[in-house]
UniProtKB/TrEMBL annotation:
CDD domains: AdoMet_MTases (cd02440). Keywords: Membrane, Transmembrane, Transmembrane helix. This is Protein N-lysine methyltransferase METTL21A. SUPFAM superfamilies: S-adenosyl-L-methionine-dependent methyltransferases (SSF53335). The lineage of its organism: Eukaryota, Viridiplantae, Streptophyta, Embryophyta, Tracheophyta. It comes from Dorcoceras hygrometricum. It holds the Pfam family Methyltransf_16. InterPro entries: Methyltransf_16, SAM-dependent_MTases_sf. Gene3D superfamilies: Vaccinia Virus protein VP39 (3.40.50.150). The chain crosses the membrane at residues 39-62.
Amino acid sequence: MQGIPGVTGAVMWDSGIVLGKFLEHAVESKTIMLQDKKVIELGSGCGFVGCIAALLGAQVVLTDLPDRLKLLKKNVETNLYGNVRGTAKVEELTWGDNLDTDFTHPCPDYVLGSDVIYSEEAVMHLMETLTELCGRQTTIILAGELRNDAILEYFLEAATKEFVFGRIDQEQWHPDYCSSRVVIYVLTKK
């Protein structure tokens, strides 16, 4: 799949901030445990969500397209230093391509993504990757801004074939980082 040219990997989108702060809040309230969990972030962009997961103790692999890795690596190196509870590494991952076994053995405990639902082609490739990447113990948490109802419906229809999904109520989000324009979904394999 070809990446969309432009700024997609160089902008902090609201859904990424909401997801990162949701993770922080969920760990603090003990509804999610990330310590020593294998986490893969899809379409990491600037790396905000993956860096937060590493700070919360996860063993994170931040992934993106080849042309986005330089900035991603720089952001990880700049923001994760000293006494970090988890680890973070950056890897290339193009959705729809066959996955390296490092991604799937063992399967991740969590797969994270923000603003990864943006076109029908991207959804198709994202679903291929999620299906190959995730085991029965994997929890997928995806956040996105509500922009295009048709694309979101296409994603939800595709997701129901392989996954059980639900929407996380805003009462469970970080109280200072909520947006009516953002939704957070949780998916697990059927």
